[in-house]
Write a structure and sequence with these properties.
heterodimer; A: alpha+beta; about 35% helix; about 20% strand; globular; B: three-stranded antiparallel β-sheet
Amino acid sequence: MRILSIRRGFTSDHSSTSYEFLAVDKPLTREAREKVKALSRRVRPTRRRAHFIYHADGYDIPGGWEPLMCEYYDVMYSESYDWWTLVMAFDAPEEQQEEIARYEFYGVDDLGVRVSTHESRVIVTIHCRLEAGAVGCLLGDNYEEDWSEEGEEEEGNEATFETDDALLSLLTEIRKQLVNRDYRALYAVWEVYGCETEEEGEDEDEFEPPPAPPKKRAGQKVIDQLREMLETP
Amino acid sequence: MLRIRFASYARYLKLSDGVRLRREHFGGIAFETRTGTMLELDREGVDLLLAIRERGVVREDDISDDSEATSSRRSANQRAKVVVQLLALGILESPLPSDLARCSSDGYAGVAERPQSHAISWSAGTGLSAPETAHWAITYRCDARCPDCYARPNSRHFAAELDTRDALRIVDVLADWGVFQLAIGGGEPLLRRDLPMLAEYARQRGLVVHVTTGHHQLPLGMLNDLSGGVVVLQIGIQHDALLQNAETETVLLSQSVHAAEDQGLHVGVNLMLSNTVLASFERLIAMLARAGLKSITLLRYKPPAEPARWRRENPSREAMGDLEQLLPEVGARHPEIAFRIDCAASFLQRRLPPATAHLAGIRGCAAANRILALVPDGSIFPCSQLIHPDLRAGNILTDDPGAIWTDSAIMMKYRFFREGSNFRESKCGVCAARSYCGGCRLFARDAWGAEPECPAGQRTQGNGELDYEDTEHSTRLHVGS
């Protein structure tokens, strides 16, 4: 049973599209921040973070978010009409790119995992819906504080930057696992959004489930947290 | 097939009073007449709502499926989630047990009757069984001489108006057909003295009535008369007047908006995106915000009577690109305002991910698809921008509207324009946004090709959108000019 579309009527209710970017491996240079800033007069990128929000229907970052993940940022999440996009980017050798590509799938309602590569850069995108309760717990960060001059100073050059945005932190942890060739998180997404496709026998001849990663204790908390957040279709 | 079981616990559900249901080939549409919210549901979803409507009031866990024994727990969870969404959207209500007696006395069946499974025959086809909205230019008479009016040239061919009796017949035809909304415009519809009575009758017949007027100043008596039937009052902004007499016109608008809201009307404005408007866009939006507007529909500039004005005022692709950059800023400055975009400018929404666009019900051109247009004599057209003798599909009072809707070559041509080779081979035809944009047929070259004013850039976008460079900026209109 599904609601296929919801069009708001004449009551003045409207949605927005927002993005949170984080540079994990290295902070943005002044020049890079200027380039990000040029995309929108309202974005105020710090050395590590950038936040975009669009209130008009159909509006988005000029050129899309993907070039930003190729060039500057390592994790990102975005919300639009209650649809969430969770993104992690990192450099990987060709062999690993092929490994990750096996976890790509289009599940129910086009939710699932997409993998794109740009030379050595791999961008892993999870399209999902999040449980309302989980969203409320995760989004407690005060970005404005992050923007302050003090925040600028605090955002140093260390290689492993930590943020107090819980969802960005979770994505940073998942990214670490992916970099270390641990794909349990992507498999967990498949278990939530991909299984039904298999059960229904859609594209039976072509469908190949992603390989089940080996189970292990280390890092399981991260996987459990992700799984609990995902709203089941 | 859906059935209702009987159990002894859980919350009660009923279809909200203002909701209308219509079955379609994919499932169906639920329309909330009090908010205008429109949902498309799959067959199982519509089945559920029809069953609840049939029963009056049901307990949530009495709802099950014939295939329940074999269906997974996942299906039950999914159904429960859909019910939660339907409750949040006001499609369903959850009466308290103490209210059940009142529900029954109000005509609801109550929970004690035996269930009746209903045989369902799903229609075939790929189009809607009827329009969602009928746009009716009830008169082409007008007491203003707005230089940007696109409707005035239509009066050359379709000036004849129906009398009240035939106008009421049109309302009956639309209501019987299953149309949800009636958008009355003109000309100036307030010149029809029978407008309040027609609107009230339409409302009684279950239609949600919108009226678009060009008057900034609306007398209280008139608003009072309209409030019996009209749900949404849309004011066409005369931007020249607003820019020239900013203070006076803003006050007039503000008074009209507040007086209309006091009468229970939802009020919005239409702002036509001419070059003059774009040049003062931020200022105009600020004035409209000061006047208390919370809904602004941005209409694409359509060809007026004077070709010279058209050439002067029609925004270029670059100007639309500038608007595209500016609109998010303006939207952020006025978060209280809902900006809506005319489907003729749906290229402004082309960056949405396809799944998001589809979930939000964005489908691009609505001609002969979600809408149908009527002119004062009852003639039928695919869209209120496509009024020309060559595009007349019939007359709603003398022909079978259902047959015209499903079989007319004109309707079919516009409804399925994306399937034509001219479109498929055009730049719009290979754009990632083709299923929810596709451009406006009024502006497209030879009617079926690419949209010339789309401001899409000159490189492939990171979001997968195939952009293109369109070197020909001139717009050639194929009809009506």
